[in-house]
Amino acid sequence: MLxxxxxxxxxxxxxxxxxxxxxRSTGTEDKAKAQEIADKAKAQxxxxxxxxxxxxxxxxxAVIRWLTDSEKKSIDTDKYHLKWLATYLDxxxxxxxxxxxxxxxxxxxxxxxxxxRVNRTTELVRSILNKAMKEWKWIDSTPHxxxxxxxxxxxxxxxxEEANRLMGELPEHTKAMALFTLATGLRESNVTHLEWSQIDxxxxxxxxxxxxxxxxxxxxxPLNDDAVAILRDQIGKxxxxxxxxxxRPVEKVxxxxxxxxxxxxxxxxxxxxxLRHTWASWHVQxxxxxxxxxxxxxxxxxDMVLRYAHLAPDHLANYAGNVSGKIVAQSVSPRNATKLxxx
Length: 343
Prior knowledge:
The protein is mostly helical. The protein has three domains: 2-134, no CATH class; 160-311, hpI Integrase, Chain A, CATH 1.10.443.10; 315-343, no CATH class. It contains 16 helices and eight strands. The protein has helices at 31-51, 59-69, 75-89, 99-110, 115-134, 160-167, 172-184, 188-192, 225-234, 256-265, 274-285, 290-297, 303-306, 317-320, 328-331, 334-342, and strands at residues 2-4, 11-17, 20-25, 199-200, 205-208, 219-222, 244-245, 248-249. The protein has a three-stranded antiparallel β-sheet with strand order 1-2-3, covered by helices on one side. Strand 1 and strand 2 form a beta hairpin. Helix 4 (99-110) runs antiparallel to helix 5 (115-134). The longest helix has 21 residues, at 31-51. The termini are far apart. Keywords: DNA integration, DNA recombination, DNA-binding. Residues 153-321 form the Tyr recombinase domain.
């Protein structure tokens, strides 16, 4: 029997075999597809109950459990990858996912993305399969999933001239979010999911709640003049969400329009997350102390901001003089000491 539950867009199925009742979501809005999934599940349950066979599970069932159990802050990124993977893995049983199918997925992804993005996609498949084997005990083994070697890239940030070129190529709604990122340093999901309830324009402050922050702590975001101006431009476009497109909330910004804009602007090796790196780099170059940058950016570790230290080598110069003259008289000749003090 197929049916829908309140507040859910997916079809559910329920049936009983020899007193065993099975009730699950199909993970799809397509009724025909949902019926097919339900029929397969019923047939498999019959085999399990009647013949004592080990239960088998579909990829969709693993995805649903993965999303339900997940406590990751980057779950939206997972959903993005899973939506793409659905073409190749939906209606496939976990034990049928072999190396040949994985290679087919890799080949398809390579046609539209680089090796780094392919790694992110296959890492998610690997994680779900490992969970199904080690924790859920749904499968006995997992296939080998090769991983491309990733080059160690330098921290990529934009110059002001590059940023201006890029902004000139972006659609208006994407441009607004990019400019807001450059003004605040917020991560992609924090910008796309930003709600008006998180903003106080009078006090010029925004808040990222603890469950939205990567470090798991509330981030207090001071809004500069640029950020305030961008927010004022969004007023009246949506009752709840700040950034929208044609009246609908935006879920993903690093899409084909972003890639086209980068190409037109002549910018290579740059991702949306690079806007956060750019914000941090500009701050350090303008004299913002690293400990202040850490608080502004919501980093949990000071080590995370040390990678920007080289952009402001002069920030140590003023402190170097704190011990100047303390040992010169004892370690160099009076003549050279005089030269050093007058230099």
